[in-house]
Structure formats: C-alpha cells, structure tokens
UniProtKB/TrEMBL annotation:
PROSITE patterns reported for this sequence: PPR
Keyword hit for Repeat: yes
GO biological process: mitochondrion organization; RNA processing
Organism domain of life: Eukaryota
PANTHER family from the UniProt entry: PENTATRICOPEPTIDE REPEAT PROTEIN-RELATED, PENTATRICOPEPTIDE REPEAT-CONTAINING PROTEIN PET309, MITOCHONDRIAL
UniProt keyword annotation of Repeat present: yes
Protein name (database record): Pentatricopeptide repeat-containing protein
GO cellular component terms, A-Z: mitochondrion
Protein family membership: Belongs to the PPR family. P subfamily.
Placement of PPR repeats on the sequence: 154-188, 189-223, 224-258, 259-289
Keywords, ordered alphabetically: Repeat
Annotated GO MF terms: mRNA binding
Organism: Buddleja alternifolia
Length: 294
DNA sequence: GTAGGGTTAG
C-alpha cells in the first residue's frame, strides 16, 4: 500500500507553478501524478472534488489502483467532499486489486450518502467477483440486479458478465444471456459474439462456435478479424484444416485481411501437428507480405 | 477536465 506521508518528497512546488492551471495532460506515470497531487493539496482553498476525481481516474488508467486508493483516503481526511464518482473510482480500484470485499464494504457509506447504484458501481463489483473466481456470487448478484431493477442495465454490465461466464467455462449461460439481450434494448455486438465463440472453441465445442459464427450475418452483427482469428485458432488447434482453409479464403473475400495473429496462430498449429513444410510455406507468404509493405 | 467491459498466438 502506498503511503501518502512520502508525498512531500514528490512535491514540485514553487510560486509560479501554484498559480498555474493544473494540467493532467502531462501525467505519464505515477510520479507525475503524485507531483500534481502535491501541488493540488497545497492550494488554498483546495481544488474541487472533480479535479481530484480527474487525478484519481488518471491513476486508474495507469493501473495504479493502490496509489489511487491511498489518495482517495487522503483527500477524505483533507476534507475534500467525496461524491459518487469518487466512490465508484475507489470501488473499482478495490475490485481491480483483488479486494472485491472492500469494494462491497464501501457500499454502506455509498447508500448512507443517498447515492444510487449505477453501471459504474456494479460492473467493477461483478468483474471483481468473476476475477476472484466467485462465479456463483457474481451470477447471483447479476440476477438480483436484474430482478430487483437495482440499476439501469447497459452494454458494459452485459460485457462483464458474458466475459466472466465464458472465462468460467459457462458458455451455455453466456449464449442464454445473448438471447436475453436480443429481446431488450442492449443488443449483442461483435465483441460479445467473439468472446463466446472463443470460449466455445476453448471448451472444444467447435460445432456450437461455428453455429454462432454462422448466425452473425443473419442477426446483423458484423464479423471482424477477431471473429475469424478466434475461430481459426479453435479449428486449427483441433486439426480441422479444411475448415481453416475455407475461413481463410472467406475472410479475404470479405476484405477482412489476415493479420500477424492469424498467421502465427496457423503456423503454430501446423508445427504442433508436424506439418512443418506447410508452416514454412505460410511463413514465406507472410514474409512476402511484409516485403510488399516495405 | 469525473466513474464502469470484453476477444485471438507465443
């Protein structure tokens, strides 16, 4: 845990800097963020909550979750008013540092202040539960949110749950969720199909993966290079070369061009199957493509 | 000038 008491060593304080507008664009690392924080807490009166939230969100983007939590605690002590944005940031930081229970424990204060749950509160909590492999709890929470209409649903919440279910090997439920989404206002998108197709391939359910892939155009969902890559990855892992070849041709016909991942996926699978000559041919094609670009 | 999500290889 980062200790705020060491902040004084990170201060860049002089008279001219103090009068200038705080610039967050210059933050490239945690040291920059702490320097700015040092300047902010020297100001009298203290900057408003939004400015501190801005700094906290920069730390989140830098994945400096424990530092952000320390600063969150520090500004509370300094008397900066804590709003729902700040609390959601702190909850997210706990969830991202495998301390989802701390995130939940913040909800008491959250409700006490009269704040309402929204997608920015619940999606990190759901994600945190899935990441800590607390799958049943995540599913129960999601069901409770839907059943009791605890917050407005959006595509991000569905994204967290589809991802969590797929990674937990529960692709059947992820597909069920896809069907629920089709009937509501948050429609499934390419990314969700890609996640499920990938999950199905990893569970060796290639037929189901192919089925989802086939239904995409009928449902008005565009396929992208990820869609082809995850499916090609699944098919080549299980030596289904005829299908891989067909997909390779199809993607080019659709002007979705194989990228470095497509090439390396197939080359890797060919090598593992002992088809080194074929892998070599593909490598040569790849080199020719690179030469063409140079 | 504020908060939340996700896919492929090695």
């Amino acid at each position: 845990m980062f200790d705020c008491r060491c902040l004084s060593t990170n201060l860049v304080s002089n008279g001219t800097m103090k009068s200038r507008r705080i610039e967050f664009g210059d933050i490239n690392g945690v040291d920059d963020a702490l320097s700015i924080y040092g300047l902010m807490i020297e100001r009298k009166p203290l900057p408003n909550t939004r400015l501190f939230n801005n700094l906290l969100s920069r730390l989140v983007k830098l994945k400096q979750y424990t530092v952000a939590i320390s600063l969150f605690r520090d500004i509370s002590i300094l008397g900066v008013s804590i709003d729902n944005y700040a609390m959601n940031i702190a909850i997210n930081c706990y969830c991202n540092s495998h301390r989802v229970d701390f995130g939940f424990s913040m909800l008491a204060a959250f409700f006490k202040r009269g704040y309402m749950l929204d997608a920015a509160t619940v999606s990190p909590l759901l994600k945190g539960l899935f990441q800590e492999n607390r799958i049943a709890e995540a599913q129960n929470l999601f069901r409770k949110i839907v059943r009791e209409e605890l917050c407005e649903m959006n595509n991000i919440i569905f994204g967290v749950v589809v991802d969590g279910l797929c990674k937990a090997g529960n692709t059947a439920m992820a597909i069920q969720l896809l069907r629920v989404m089709e009937k509501g206002s948050c429609r499934p998108d390419t990314h969700k199909y890609n996640m499920i197709i990938d999950g199905l391939c990893k569970d060796k359910l290639l037929d189901s993966a192919m089925k989802l892939f086939d239904e995409m155009p009928h449902k008005g969902i565009d396929r992208d290079v990820f869609t082809y890559n995850v499916l090609i990855n699944g098919l080549s892992t299980f030596g289904q070369w005829k299908e891989v070849k067909a997909l390779w041709k199809e993607m080019i016909d659709c002007k979705i061009y194989p990228n470095v991942i497509t090439f390396t996926t197939v080359i890797d699978a060919l090598c593992k199957e002992g088809l080194v000559d074929k892998a070599h041919d593909l490598l040569n094609i790849m080199i020719q493509k690179i030469m063409f670009l140079l």
